[in-house]
Amino acid sequence: MSVERKPDLRIVGGHPVLDLVNTVTPRRRGGREHLTSPTALLAWSQRVGLVGAGEVRAIGAAWRARSGSAGQALHATLDVRESVYGIVAARLADPTPKPGATAAALEHLTLRWAAATARSTLVAAAHQPADVVVGTDPAFVVPDRLAFAAVELLRSVDPGHVKECPVSEGGCGWLFLDQSRNGSRRWCAMADCGAQAKARKLTARRRAARASTVRG
Ligand SMILES: [Zn+2]
After folding, report:
1. Which of 52, 151, 182, 194 could form a disulfide with 187 if both were Cys (CB 3.0 to 4.6 A apart)?
2. What are the two backbone dihedrals, phi and then psi, of residue 16, each rounded to the nearest 5 degrees?
3. Which PANTHER family match (predicted)?
4. What share of the chain is helix, strand, coil (3-state, %, to 5)?
C-alpha cells in the first residue's frame, strides 16, 4: 500500500498568527483544515518556530498526563485563529467596520488572551527591567503564545500591511504581512496563486483569440 504524502503547508504569512489563520486552504468557508488533531497542531507549532524541540516533548507529556488537555489546547488554538480571522476579514471588507462587526470575535480573543495572561509570569530580563514568559502550563503553551502574539499583532500592525490573497482573482484568501518596500505584494506566493492566476488569464485570452478566429 502506498502512503500518499500530503504536500507541506506553505508558511508565507510573515507572522506566526497569520500563518495560523492560513491553516485552512482556501481560507474562505469550506476550506481544508490542516490542524486536524493535537499532534498536527504540535508539528505545525514547531515548524513555525512557536515552540522548540524540548518544549514539544514537555507539551506531549503534559497532554498525556492530563486527560482532555490536548483537545482543549487544540480547541483554544482554533478559537484564537477564527477570532483573528474574523477581526481582520471584517477590516479587509470594510476599512471602517461598525464596532458590532467584530464584537464577538474580539470577545472570544479577549477571553483566550486573559486565560493566557493568567498562565504567564513576569521575570527579570537581561536587556530590559522585566519580560513576560508566556506559558507556565506546558499543556496550553501553544494557544497561550498564539493569543499573546495575536493581540500584539492586532494592536500594533498597520492595517494596510495585512493583505488577503485575492479570492476574486482566483487567490486562496490567505492573509499575509506585506513587507515589500512599496506595498506591492498581491499574492500569498507568486509561485503558487500568482502563477495559477496568470496561467488562467493566458488560457482565457487564448480561448478568446481562438473563438474570434473561428468567428472571423
Ligand atoms: Zn494564495
Report:
1. 194
2. -55, -35
3. BLL6575 PROTEIN (PTHR35525)
4. 60, 10, 35
Q: How far is the CA of 188 from the centre of ligand 1 (A)?
A: 4
Neighbours of ion ligand 1 (CB under 5 A): 165, 171-172, 174, 188, 193
Q: Parallel, antiparallel, or unpaired for β 32-33 and 120-124?
A: unpaired
Cα of 4 vs centre of ligand 1, distance in Å, is 23
Q: How far is the CA of 100 from the centre of ligand 1 (A)?
A: 29
Average pLDDT score over residue span 27-34: 89
* Residue 190: predicted pLDDT: 79
Cβ(41)–Cβ(74) below 8 Å: yes
185 Cβ contact list (under 8 Å, min separation 6) = 163, 176, 178, 179
pLDDT above 80: residue 27? yes
Dist. CA 112 → ligand 1 center (Å): 28
pLDDT of residue 1: 45
Question: All domains of the chain, ordered by start, with CATH?
Answer: 16-215 (1.10.3300)
Instruction: Considering only CA atoms, give the Rg of the chain.
Output: 21
CA of 216 to the centre of ligand 1 (A): 38
38 contacts: CB under 8 Å, gap ≥ 6 = 63, 70, 71, 73, 74
At residue 191, the 3 state secondary structure works out as helix
Predicted pLDDT at 203: 85
